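Objective 1.3, modelling of assemblies. Example input:
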Amino acid sequence: MKADDRLRLAATDDNVRRETVARFLDWLKRRQRTAPPETALPDDPQTGAREVALDEDLAARFRRAATTVGMNVHTAMLSDWLDVVGELLQKHEARSAAIPAAGDGFFEAERVEQLRQRLTGEGIATQSDVDDETLFSVDVAITGVAAAIAEHGSLVCESQPGVARGSSLIPPIHIAVVAVEQLLPDLCDYFDGLSKRSGLPAAISLITGPSKTADIEGVLVTGVHGPAVVDVVVVRPA
Amino acid sequence: MSVTKSEFRQRIAAGIADERVIRAVHQATLHKVDAAAEALAELSDREGLRELAAQIKQHLLENLPEYLEQFVRACERRGTRVHFAADAQAACEIICAIAHGSGSELAVKAKSMATEEIRLNDALQAAGVRTIETDLGEFIVQIDHDRPSHIVTPIIHKDRRQIAQALVRETGCDYTEDPEELTAIARDYLRDIFRRCDLGITGANFAVAESGTICICTNEGNGRMSTTRPRVHVALVGIEKLVPRLRDLPVFLKLLARSSTGQPLTVYTTLITGPKRPSDRDGPEQLHVVLLDNGRSEILGGPFTEVLRCIRCGACLNACPVFRNIGGHAYGSVYPGPIGSLATPLLSGINEHAELPRASTLCGACQAACPVKIDLPGLLVKLRAQTRARQPLGKRLGMNVWKRLMQSPALFGWGQRVLRWMLPGGDDGWISSGFGPAGAWTKVRDLPRPPERTFRERWREGLDDEG
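Predicted structure (tokens):
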């Protein structure tokens, strides 16, 4: 068998592929230096890497950090979050919006319904069962988040049934609704929680600002492939 | 790709002559250095974090086979297909075979240095798979038939006029020099590609052994697009990219963007664990991880192991007074900058790139900037020693004479007198020409004329001339 054929087979035949990987690992182990490894793995990287104390004012820190990276942070109460979201859509002159599925963070089924009615009342077309093609055509996507991190002002979107990867990515404007209880202090806290879960979602996106580039002469431009505008509505209990 | 000494010199001469590029590179890198310094100063214990990052990576490298094994098991558990490629050719063949096997005709690529290293685009094109770069800078490089000159900012060497001309040629758009409009033109063009593509190719900034997770950091969102739209996702991952645990990632994420562009975090940090679940709405149905060796296992365990700690932030390029003034093209190395002067010879042959480790002033600015504390100047010196046999006979003889001179006080004193005769100096108090080999040395360097009498002469006379 020619070398090329073997490689093609390795790419398409699962058994050949696994065998190739196993052979390499065996070889690497055998040629490893006999000297015992010297560098210990730090038990708890959090001790050295934590920037935000657990008792800091998380909402204030989140607002400061998220604003610095170019997101617009708005505050709402449980009693008026719909008004705040509605006003944002008006400001953006949105004609159509992708709305979240029930279970996407803040959005319990009842709140999704409230949102739908509100938008329909304002003449905005709502798309709930979003496929990718819909996402390419709507003006705005409204989503919940799995968590938000105060340290850098990051939103965490996790793929799950009903929650598409593309919602927070493809439409030009992203409005994320965050319940204040969803705020975590530090990046370390999110990853600590993640490592304790039994299964991980297929895709997790940490979003820290609008899509941006400075490739052309160092000039900052927002909205390259992702949204140019990210509005975050932080909802406090009434 | 072997680079001869005269080619190397010519390339550098051309690089130095291009004033526009030098100005652009200088401005951009200085800005980045300032931004990075500011961002790193925000950390409560910058040094502690660097130490932690260095320690985790060093531990990983010392135990790499075990962690790779763990990574492969975790991947297979979640339905990710792991491949192994011993060299660039194998990696290209495997990825082309995956493309053919899945009937892919249009591939999108997120920015990845590893795919540059193996020249994947050429291989895919030869295999009949149209491949489009989706990072704005890389896209411009591609349509302008150029090569990236910086790890993070690939078109740092181009101005807006060149970018506008390339876009007009490729897309037929109206000419504009406004960066915002230029970006919008590229966005629209690439959106159409994203809608139709069937293969997504990315690198990985990190791969997590315990969970089989791939971590991709981008600012534009192309990394997310490339892992959302296509049916098949292939990630090319150097075997040194692993970190042991999910809990280790924040240590590196907090350093990577700060060191690179001065951002606290890249806009998008994407964590991919396995292909799309059956109940998920979107995402690739197949996920392939191609583990790339291509010379890395040869470095592992040897005196240059710590080179493999590199997280490709580009801080050493920005900090380097040489690269700040010439740009990454000049040295003809896939990985530019001080880390490239180590990685390129180590990965693709010391003898082919013997000049690279010598093209450094060893000032140490790169080491001070490195988030994983790689001893770049120390390793450059070590690498120089390994290529000693390749030096021309004249230089080797010269260095031997130098060694003898420096070891004998009598010869040293004699040498000082000879040198004074060989470097007479001009009337202005500066030496700018000389006889014999000293003449070559002064061609690009001026030095002040030495004092009338040497320290040793004065010492012998009891330093009485100074009182």
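Chain A has one domain: 57-236.
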